[in-house]
């Protein structure tokens, strides 16, 4: 399904479809969760103080294991884009290494038939699930985004971002080739409060032996929608959002960036391919280039609004239907969750988030940083 977008932004206040100031509970069709948009608690970007000090980072940090010259500090590289040099020496533009402290580890060579490494079938009966467990088999790799210690998604060239995406794509394909892997999670933790332990910019890729509940829940919602309507939930969402035109932040030939209707976090965004594809591996070279361009544009705006923004970026991407170990349809997307608000009792207890910045307001603020534009 191809969506032809013709989006023209007007800064018309009257197109906001809600009364600002009255809290609303909104339902998120993808996650099935709720968000409370409570604007009386509204904060403008300048009011948010990043919990981390904004400090100047240098291009190189002598003690950083991800900086060029310190390649021996990491496990040997499994993939690199190089302009020169031997493996595990400088000359790389993007470098992928196993995590030195992995959450999961690949099955050792020669242990293919070893029962100790076998992933048991998840039991059908609830009783059988009581003490279900599996060996911690999987992959945990780090994609070092660039040789620069101070790089960022809004700072790299589109070319560099494309290299990063290609690294991610290739490592995902390798992991999905493993009989042990059911799902590959690509994510980025940026900033201490978002869980990053090393400053040098990097993505992480974890190959899991199970399908995680977040992805299953989204997939099930897509399946239920398809059974009832014979259409894709995400394709329909994109069409409706293009018509409403109050939460579409930007778009290019292959991607749209939305501020989700039920954004659970302030300035949350969703990057969605306009073509109905289940994952990165199905995207053309041109689409990957468009993804690189839109990430650069979006994060340029984020970085202009919030210096040193802590955030998590989460890819929801599945392999093609023929390779997938799943039974539902999927439409790939990327969530960006800024960590400006603190998760507290309501969030932990009820899975319901209080968001002080309405996504319609966030959309306008992003657009002000991006300038006016027109896309067809
Ligand atoms: Zn570094
Ligand atoms: Zn779709
Ligand atoms: Zn998702």
Question: What can you tell me about this protein's structure?
Answer:
This protein has helices at residues 158-177, 213-229, 233-244, 285-305, 345-350, 359-370; strands at 7-8, 24-27, 34-37, 79-82, 92-98, 139-144, 183-190, 202-208, 248-251, 255-258, 269-273, 311-316, 333-338, 352-355, 374-375. Residues 1-15 and 372-376 have low confidence and may be disordered. It has 376 residues and is of the alpha+beta class. Helix 1 (158-177) crosses helix 4 (285-305) and helix 4 (285-305) crosses helix 6. The chain has a domain at 7-42 and 234-375: HIT-like (HIT family, subunit A).
- Please state the CA-atom Rg, rounded to the nearest Å: 21 Å
Could you report the average pLDDT, rounded to the nearest whole number? Answer: 86
Lateral arrangement of strands in the main beta sheet: 4-5-6-8-7-12-13-11-10-9
Question: What sort of overall outline do the alpha carbons produce when their principal axes are compared?
Answer: globular
CATH architectural designation of the domain at 7-42 and 234-375: 2-Layer Sandwich
* Tally of DSSP β-strands: 15
CATH superfamily of the domain at 7-42 and 234-375: HIT-like
| CATH class term of the domain at 7-42 and 234-375 | Alpha Beta
Run of helices and strands: EEEEEEHEEHHEEEHEEHEHE
The description of the largest β-sheet is: 10 strands, antiparallel
Helix content: 10-25%
Our count of helices gives 6
Bound molecules: zinc ion
Instruction: Give the N-to-C terminal Cα separation.
Output: 17 Å
Strand content: 15-25%
User: What fold name goes in the CATH topology slot of the domain at 7-42 and 234-375?
Assistant: HIT family, subunit A
The helix/strand class is alpha+beta
Unreliable sequence segments: 1-15, 372-376
């Amino acid at each position: 399904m191809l969506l032809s977008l013709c989006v023209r932004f007007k800064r018309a206040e009257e197109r906001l479809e809600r009364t600002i100031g009255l809290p609303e509970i909104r339902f998120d069709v993808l996650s099935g969760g709720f968000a409370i948009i409570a604007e009386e608690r509204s904060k403008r970007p300048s009011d948010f103080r990043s919990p981390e000090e904004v400090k100047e980072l240098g291009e190189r940090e002598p003690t950083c294991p991800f900086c060029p010259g310190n390649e021996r500090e990491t496990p040997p590289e499994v993939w690199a884009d190089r302009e020169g040099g031997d493996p595990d020496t400088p000359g790389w533009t993007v470098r992928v290494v196993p995590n030195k402290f992995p959450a999961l580890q690949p099955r050792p060579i020669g242990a293919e038939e070893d029962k100790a490494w076998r992933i048991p079938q998840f039991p059908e009966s609830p009783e059988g699930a009581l003490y279900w467990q599996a060996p911690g088999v999987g992959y945990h790799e780090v994609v070092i985004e660039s040789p620069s210690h101070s790089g960022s998604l809004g700072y790299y060239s589109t070319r560099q971002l494309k290299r990063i995406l290609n690294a991610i794509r290739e490592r995902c394909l390798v992991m999905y080739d493993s009989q042990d892997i059911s799902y590959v999670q690509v994510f980025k933790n940026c900033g201490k409060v978002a869980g990053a332990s090393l400053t040098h910019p990097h993505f992480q890729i974890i190959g899991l032996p199970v399908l995680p509940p977040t992805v299953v829940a989204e997939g099930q919602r897509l399946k239920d929608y398809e059974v009832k309507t014979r259409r894709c939930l995400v394709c329909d969402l994109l069409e409706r959002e293009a018509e409403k035109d109050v939460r579409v932040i930007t778009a290019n030939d292959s991607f749209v960036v939305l501020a989700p209707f039920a954004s659970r976090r302030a300035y949350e965004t969703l990057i969605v391919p306009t073509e109905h594809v289940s994952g990165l591996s199905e995207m053309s070279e041109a689409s990957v280039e468009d993804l690189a361009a839109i990430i650069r544009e979006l994060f340029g705006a984020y970085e202009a609004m919030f210096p040193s923004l802590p955030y998590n970026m989460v890819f929801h991407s599945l392999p093609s239907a023929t390779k997938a170990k799943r039974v539902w349809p999927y439409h790939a997307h990327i969530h960006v969750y800024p960590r400006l608000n603190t998760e507290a009792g309501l969030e932990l207890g009820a899975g319901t988030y209080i968001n002080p910045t309405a996504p319609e307001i966030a959309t306008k603020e992003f657009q002000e940083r991006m300038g006016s534009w027109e896309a067809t």
